Amino acid sequence: MIDLLDPTNVITRMFNSENYDQLYNYCKDLLKKNPSDMLALQNISLSLIYLKNFEEAVTYCNKVLEINDSDTYALKNKIFALESLKQYDKVLELCEKLLEIDLKDTWALNSMGISLNELDRHKDAIQYYDTTLVIDPNDVTALMNKAISLDHLGNYQDAITYYDLAQRIDSSLREISSAKSKLFEKLNMPDEAFLAAQGVLNKDMDKIKSDAKQNKCSIFHQFCNDEFQNSELK
Fold first, then answer.
1. Interatomic CA distance for residues 210 and 27, integer angstroms
2. Which of 138, 145, 141, 97 is closest to 124 using CA atoms?
3. Which of 47, 50, 112, 188 is the most exposed place for a label (fewest CB within 10 A)?
């Protein structure tokens, strides 16, 4: 039988129902009884992050880290809070701590890269995304952010390639189409910019352009015709 009054179960219910104020107050009461209650310390910091009280969240993360300076949950919560506070130099220090614990922590590697991007250190950021992609070639976060880094460095063609790789893995990411389209515009490739904006993958663009040439029509008309035929087949 499940003990509904067990703190773990109470906290889980509050979190799942998104009652973050209640979760905060519940953890606060637990800490009055035991200031070193790790369950309460971890979850009060989590509630504060959802309540966007990032400075107080950092305070409670620090209390956990005073007890265990290698607590990865507290380190990641603190990183999230510091990112929201735009304290990226501090984020880098904590990411290094996580990587000392686990060199293959892709979450830490990506967080390191993102903070380096925010600090306008895009070449350095790419090294961390590349390390992530060696571990997991399908890591969409690394692919997207490497594309952003390459864009900042003026390497538009390679940026498009990485956006396209991310799009193949997760076509639901609507922002990719817009980002690719803007990069094609920078390369003065209006047809590709139009197709990218419609969500067309790089590998499918050549056929549309070839068909348009064969049918002696514009890329726009060819794309619309293809869309109409596909809808008819459905």
1. 63
2. 145
3. 188
Burial class (CB in 10 A: 0-12, 13-18, 19+), 2: exposed
Tell me the C-alpha distance between 180 and 83, whole Å: 26
Provide, rounded to the nearest whole percent, the portion of the chain with pLDDT above 70.
95
Indicate if the pLDDT at residue 226 is higher than 80. Answer: no
- Rounded to the nearest 5°, which phi and psi values hold at 136? -140, 100
For residue 4, what pLDDT band results from cuts at 50, 70 and 90?
very low
Residue 11 and residue 26 in contact, taking contact as beta carbons nearer than 8 Å: yes
Q: Which residues of 165-201 are buried (b: 16+ CB within 10 A; e: fewer)?
A: bbbeeeeeeeebbebbbbbbbeeebebbbbbbeeebe
Token pair in block for residue 78 = 């603190």
Task: Say yes or no to pLDDT of 211 above 50.
Answer: yes
Q: Which residue has the tokens 């830490």?
A: 108
CB contact set of 5 (below 8 Å; sequence gap of 6+):
none
Total residues belonging to the chain: 234
Structure tokens at 211: 């068909």
6 token code pair: 């067990």
Rounded Cα distance, 108 and 9, in Å: 29
